[in-house]
User: What shape does this take?
Amino acid sequence: MLLNNNVTEFILLGLTQDPVKKKRVFVVFLLSYLGTLLGNSLIIVTIKTSRALGSPMYFFLFYLSLSDTCFSTSIAPRMIVDTLLKNSTISFSECMIQVFSFHFFGCLEIFVLILMAVDRYVAICKPLHYMSIMNWQVCSMLVGVAWVGAWVPSSVQIYLALSLPFCGPNVIDHYLCDFQLLLKLACTDTYMTNLLPVSNSGATCTVSFVMLMFSYVIILHSLRKHRTEGRKKALSTCISHIFVVIFFFGPSIFIYTRPTETFLMDKMITVFYTFGTHLINPLIYTLRNAE
Assistant: This one.
């Protein structure tokens, strides 16, 4: 519900206001986005068309690549076009859509990474029962739970964002709309609301990261009992997953565990987990995967 909202659009300052630097940003991020689309699309198409990639691991990888593609698309096209404009504005409705989609696909990626860790745990620690535990019904149900799980916190954030009153400043010193940035523009006391990114996004990222790293410690410990050939293959897969987890969660935790503080490096760190991670993921999963 909108409350006393006199703002119909927001001004995005982007990464820089320098015309020369904006051209460089345009080239770099256009190539990054195209690389992300190409890499993840190839993974999606390959998994869907190849019978050899029919295991649960590739089932979850399909959804990871899908969430990567959607996450990048919710931010990149708008940001790339804005670098060509002298003054970049985004309507109130577009801003709210970006806030929701940004967090929805980010949460979806978190839950898919957790499912991939569960899959590796069962495959390595319970190999004899792997196919009976991770059957297609279970995998489909888990993915459905991930979609619902991503929808809940995203809906809470967009509801609170729509409830904020905006009556004055409408300049966002960033290249995207995010709940934390909107809080700074609200013409009301947002002290308690400021804690939401920490209790919602921050806690989700931190708890998920700790759970994932703990699970991989257990998996790596159990690999000592495997034969050399099987251990090398499982180790290669787990290391790929660990790299993805660190690259995605590290910057996210840095941004969303601070309710009010703002650092100069925040924009560049946001760039890493909104652009860099989703470009790196296809490279990690393909270069380190013989299949």
About this structure: Residues 92-125 form the longest helix (34 residues). The chain has one domain: 9-287.
